[in-house]
Amino acid sequence: MKIKWALNELKKLNGDPLPVSGQVDLTKSLKDRNTSIIDAEPLQMDGILVVENTDEFLVDLNLTISLILPSARSLEPVKVDLRIPFSETYLAAGTVVDAEKYGNDEIVVELESDTLDLQKPLEDAVLAAIPTQVFTDKERENGDMPRGSDWKVVSEDAYGTGVRERLSEEEDPRFAALKGFFSEENE
Questions:
Q1: Is the keyword DNA-binding in the record (predicted)?
Q2: What does the pLDDT look like over 42-56, one tens digit per residue?
Q3: What is the rounded CA–CA span in Å between residue 31 and residue 146?
């Protein structure tokens, strides 16, 4: 699947949308940029590339990819399916554009050369979509956390509850002298 075009080639489209549909293998580059990725299937792309005003190139794609990532608890491999919307506008180098034309949510990139290469932007979109925590189905169902002979992992909720309980049960003697400091009786 082609993901790199010369701008002159795209300008010949005369405003007709160029269908972009197919697969591209980004496995090696994704693994090089994020070492926690164990494996990746080829990236599936479906969408269009439209040339507007001969110097503006709109790329609107739906990306689908499956990654193998380590579980946050056990480091067991977990297959994660991602569906990523990808919409960016690219401007030829030196293009002057009215800032009001594009909204705050739109990504506009000025090209540094006479080619439109989507390799890095596609990688960036996939890497940004990776969830921060991945769990196996079994880990999600039972909620058991890893533990050892003198340690255990607790969830944030359990940790927060435990801290609040300990603080309500015992008062820190270092703060006992300050207990009535802000009371209205001292005013």
A1: yes
A2: 999 999 999 987 788
A3: 27
